[in-house]
Amino acid sequence: MRRSKSFALALVLTLPLAVFGGGKDDHDANRPAVELQMRDGIGRSLAKLERGGSVTVAYIGGSITCGVWRERTTEWMRRRDPKATITEVNAALGGTGSGIGVFRYRDDVLRQRPDLVFVEFACNDSGHDNRTIRKSIEGMVRQTWKTLPETDLCFTYVITGYMTNGYCRGVYHRPASVHEEIAERYGIPSICFGLRVAKLVREDRIVMCANAALSEDDRNRSVKIAFPVSGECPEPPPGSPKPIFSLDGVHPTLGGHELYARCVADSLEKLAAMPPADHAKRLAGPCVVADNLEGVGWCRPSPEMLQGEWRPYVSDGDWRAKTLFFTDMMTSAKGLTMTERPGSSLRFRFKGRKCSLYALFGPDCGQLVIRRNGQTVGKPYPLFDRYCRWYRLQGIPVYGRHRKPDGRRPSRL
Questions:
Q1: Chain centroid to CA 37: how far?
Q2: Against a cut of 0.90, is the pTM above it?
Q3: How remote is the C-alpha of 406 from its chain's centroid?
Q4: Cα separation, 297 vs 36, whole angstroms
Q5: Which residues pair with residue 120 across a beta bridge?
Q6: Separation between Cα atoms, residue 226 and residue 204, nearest integer Å
Q7: pLDDT per position as a tens digit, 90-116
Q8: φ, ψ for residue 408 (rounded to 5)?
Q9: How, if at all, do strands 371-372 and 408-412 pair?
Q10: Which DSSP symbol is given to 370?
């Protein structure tokens, strides 16, 4: 049976406060990497855990944070402070970096009023220039403390195959170096997973990425071998394969996720001794980027914007929900509007420097034709790519990087 082509979307808009600019990297230096930068700490949320209070812990990032290290970290907190009531907020969204995260952050994270937020975007920020990364990450920080000044933040940095050489030399990869600029300015602690993994690679105790020539049996055995999570692990018998950190060079195996979670647990034990920080005072003084994205947000398409056959997307009972790469707990995901009728359109006007669509990508999704001021812009935009064995949300640029604000811009899809 041939399925109909479909797509679902929401709008992400900058408000007039946020001014977008292009800009080349002003530097590309890699900083010396440190597993734990304590800075102002996360003393308020950890003290609340120790007192047995109710604590909400949010995680925002890409597909790696969709995985097991997040769950294991929350489980460790529950074991450490069994009297506390911990609510986990999974706001991770595969295939996205801080450029999308900053738009949905207010609704997917801050609306849940978290006590502690782990931010993991350096990996997926690799395709963006330094200035763009600064604007997004600083925007999230300032959104947090202008809304919830007592919320603690912690940046986390994962490792992938292409980052391994750098971490073996003891340096962050470029986006993590940029995140560290923001962390230093605002006193945010950071945890780098890469150094611990790189050490095991240098010692030839694990395989960073499964070799394509490795047999399927050896792959299956390797991912089940006890992983040197705590640093103490018996040597495998002669001739047996070493543990594999990742099958694709990006996403950790279960053992890799356990290693990440152990790294977080060790860091939280050290941070527990720090007093609560006054985050509000960190908002005083100049910003790292004057036109950071603290004023951005997303909006749901209103009925008057829609022409053709549209309906709210509801995952319950929908066959696509079995492979959705996002969670229904995300407020922004609940704003999706769907059509299966070719020729349906969305028409809207906006005021600002940049506008994007927040669209569902997947194996049966169609294409968008973007028209601005009556003129077709580029080629039809496919809502699928080589990663579409599942469904995920992704941003599509509609308008941006213009030098001067020029009022309300009509756009029609």
A1: 20
A2: no
A3: 32
A4: 31
A5: 61
A6: 15
A7: 999 888 899 989 988 998 999 999 999
A8: -95, 120
A9: antiparallel
A10: -
